[in-house]
C-alpha cells in the first residue's frame, strides 16, 4: 500500500510538473510571439524615423538654423550674381540644394544654377505661401523635376516679406530607400501633408510625378474602411482589406513637418513571422515535454518495478511468490505452451524448527532458495509456494529434462550442509515432477506433481519422482 501510494504521489507530481511546464512554456511562447511582433513593429517604425531624421529632419534643421541666424538676409535683395555665388557656396558646404525666392527680384534662385520667375503660372506655391504668411512649409514643387521643398519665410526688421529660402530634396533617393525597406521588412509608407496630399510613399503607382502629383489621401481605396474618426492621441491603428489581404494601417503624426505618416503592415508577413516564432517555441516545448515525460516514465517504471517486486516477491527468500507463479502460468496457458512443473519440499523440516527454532528454520529456507536458484535454466521460474515448499515452472520442457533439473537441485541441496555458527545441518529435499502438453488449470498440474512428491516422500525422501500428467 505504501508503494502504491508512492506511485500515486509520483503521478500527481508528474501531472503538476507537466501542467507547470506547459503553462510556463505557453507563457514564454506568447511572450515571444508578442515580443517578436513588437520587435517587427519597432523595427519598422524605428527604420522610418531614422529615415525621417536623416533625410528630412536633419536638412530641415540645417535650413532653419541658417535662416534664424540671418545667413540669408543679406542676399534677399542682393544682386543676382551675389545670390548665385552665395548659393553655390552653401551647396558645396552642406551638400544640399539651397534656394532663395526673392520678393525684390521676383525670381527664385537655386544653388545648382537654375532660376525661375515668380509668377502664378511657374511658381504658384510662392503665392499660396505668401497669402498664408506661414513661417514654414514642406511640400512638392518643380513640376518638371519633382522635388520635396522646405520653405522658410524671410522678413526684414520691420516685418515686411523678403521672400522664402530653404532646401530642395530629390525624391528619387527616397523612392530607392523605400524600396529597400519594403523588400527587407515588408512594410509600406505614405506621407501626407496638412492638405491631405500624398507627398512621399513607397507605392510606385502613388509616387508624385509630373502634373499628377496631388493624390489625395481620401482617394485611396483603403481610407474609407480605415478612417474611424480622429482619435484623442492624433493617431490610430485599424485593420483593413488591402489587395484582397488584411493589413494593419497605423497613423503617426509628424508635427514638426505638419505631416502624417501611415505605416501599412500586411498581416501575412507578420503571421509568417509569428508562425515561425510559434513553431520554434512549440518545438522547444515539445522537446522539454518529451524529456520531462521520459524522466517521469523512468521514475514511474522504477516505482512500478519496486511495487511489482514487493507484490510478486517472497520477503524471506527473494524468490517469486505464489501470486507471480500463478500469473506466469496464466500467460503460458494463454499462449498454449507445453509445461513441466516441479514441486519440492524440505525433508523433516518440522524437526528443524522444533530442535533449532524458527530463526534457524528461516535461514534453512533462505539458503535452500539460493541453492535451487543456482540450478535454474534460462526461462525457468522458481517460486516459494508456502512454508518449506517450492514450485518450479519449466515452460517448453519435457518430462525427462524437468526430471534432470530436479535431480541437479536435489544433489546440490544434499551436498551442501547448512551452517550457523557451530551448528551444521545436513538438509535434503524431495521432488515431484510432472509434464503436460495440454492443461487447463494450475491446480491440476500441482495435484499431479504432488502425487509424485508424495511417492518420493514415502519412498524414502531425498529423491526425484516423475509422473506424466493425466486429466482423468
In short:
This protein has 472 residues and is an alpha+beta fold. Helix content is 48%, strand content 24%.
Describe the protein:
With 472 residues, the chain is of the alpha+beta class. It has a domain at 313-468: 2-Layer Sandwich (Alpha-Beta Plaits). It contains 11 helices and 18 strands. The protein has helices at residues 2-68, 80-94, 124-132, 171-185, 223-226, 267-312, 322-335, 349-356, 358-374, 399-414, 442-458, and strands at residues 97-102, 107-110, 115-117, 136-141, 147-155, 161-170, 188-192, 198-201, 237-242, 245-254, 259-266, 339-346, 381-386, 389-395, 418-420, 423-425, 429-436, 464-468. The strands form 4 sheets. It has a 6-stranded antiparallel beta sheet with strand order 3-2-1-6-5-4, sandwiched between helices. Helix 1 (2-68) packs antiparallel against helix 4 (171-185). The radius of gyration is 50 Å and the shape is rod-shaped. The mean pLDDT is 82.
Provide keyphrases for this structure:
single chain, alpha+beta, Alpha-Beta Plaits, five-stranded antiparallel β-sheet, 48% helix, 24% strand, rod-shaped
Strand line-up in the sheet with most strands: 3-2-1-6-5-4
What is the element string, with H for helices and E for strands?
HHEEEHEEEHEEHEEEHHEHHEEHEEEHE
Averaged pLDDT, please?
A: 82
Q: Identify the CATH architecture of the domain at 313-468.
A: 2-Layer Sandwich
Q: Main β-sheet, in a few words?
A: 6 strands, antiparallel
Number of H/I helices: 11
Residues in helices, as a percent range:
40-55%
CATH topological fold name of the domain at 313-468 = Alpha-Beta Plaits
Amino acid at each position: 500500500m505504501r508503494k502504491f501510494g508512492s506511485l500515486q504521489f509520483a503521478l500527481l507530481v508528474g501531472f503538476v510538473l507537466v501542467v507547470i511546464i506547459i503553462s510556463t512554456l505557453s507563457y514564454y511562447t506568447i511572450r515571444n510571439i508578442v515580443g517578436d511582433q513588437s520587435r517587427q513593429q519597432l523595427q519598422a517604425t524605428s527604420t522610418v524615423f531614422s529615415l525621417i531624421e536623416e533625410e528630412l529632419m536633419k536638412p530641415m534643421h540645417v535650413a532653419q538654423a541658417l535662416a534664424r541666424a540671418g545667413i540669408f538676409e543679406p542676399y534677399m535683395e542682393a544682386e543676382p550674381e551675389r545670390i548665385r555665388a552665395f548659393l553655390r557656396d552653401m551647396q558645396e558646404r552642406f551638400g544640399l540644394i539651397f534656394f532663395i525666392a526673392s520678393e525684390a527680384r521676383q525670381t527664385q534662385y537655386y544653388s545648382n544654377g537654375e532660376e525661375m520667375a515668380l509668377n502664378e503660372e511657374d511658381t504658384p506655391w510662392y503665392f499660396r505661401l505668401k497669402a498664408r504668411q506661414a513661417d514654414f512649409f514642406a511640400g512638392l514643387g518643380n513640376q518638371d523635376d519633382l522635388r520635396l521643398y522646405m520653405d522658410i519665410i524671410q522678413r526684414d526688421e520691420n516685418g515686411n516679406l523678403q521672400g522664402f529660402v530653404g532646401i530642395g530634396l530629390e525624391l528619387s533617393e527616397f523612392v530607392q530607400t523605400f524600396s529597400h525597406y519594403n523588400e527587407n521588412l515588408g512594410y509600406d509608407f505614405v506621407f501626407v501633408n496638412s492638405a491631405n496630399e500624398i507627398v512621399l510613399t513607397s507605392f510606385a503607382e502613388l509616387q508624385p510625378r509630373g502634373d499628377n502629383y496631388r493624390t489625395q489621401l481620401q482617394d485611396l481605396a483603403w481610407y474609407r474602411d480605415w478612417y474611424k474618426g480622429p482619435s484623442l492621441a492624433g493617431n490610430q491603428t485599424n485593420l483593413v482589406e488591402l489587395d484582397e489581404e488584411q493589413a494593419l494601417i497605423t497613423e503617426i503624426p509628424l508635427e514638426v513637418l505638419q505631416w502624417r505618416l501611415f505605416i501599412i503592415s500586411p498581416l501575412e508577413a507578420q503571421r509568417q513571422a509569428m508562425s515561425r516564432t510559434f513553431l520554434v517555441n512549440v518545438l522547444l516545448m515539445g522537446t522539454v515535454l518529451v524529456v520531462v515525460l521520459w524522466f517521469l516514465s523512468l521514475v514511474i517504471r522504477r516505482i512500478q518495478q519496486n511495487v511489482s517486486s514487493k507484490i510478486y516477491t517472497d520477503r524471506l527468500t527473494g524468490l517469486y511468490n505464489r501470486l507471480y507463479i500463478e500469473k506466469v502460468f496464466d500467460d503460458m496457458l494463454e499462449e498454449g505452451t507445453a509445461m513441466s512443473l516441479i514441486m519440492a519440499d524440505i525433508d523433516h523440516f518440522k524437526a528443524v524448527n522444533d530442535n533449532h527454532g524458527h530463526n534457524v528454520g528461516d535461514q534453512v529456507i533462505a539458503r535452500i532458495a539460493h541453492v535451487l536458484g543456482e540450478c535454474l535454466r534460462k526461462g525457468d521460474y522458481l517460486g516459494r509456494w508456502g512454508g518449506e515448499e517450492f514450485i518450479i515452472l519449466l515452460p517448453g520442457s519435457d518430462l525427462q529434462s524437468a526430471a534432470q533439473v530436479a535431480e541437479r537441485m536435489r544433489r546440490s541441496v544434499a551436498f551442501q550442509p547448512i551452517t550457523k555458527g557451530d551448528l551444521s545441518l545436513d538438509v535434503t529435499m524431495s521432488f515431484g515432477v510432472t509434464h503436460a502438453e495440454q492443461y487447463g488449470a494450475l491446480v491440476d498440474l500441482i495435484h499431479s506433481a504432488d502425487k509424485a512428491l508424495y511417492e518420493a516422500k514415502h519412498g524414502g525422501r531425498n529423491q526425484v519422482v516423475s509422473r506424466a500428467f493425466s486429466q482423468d
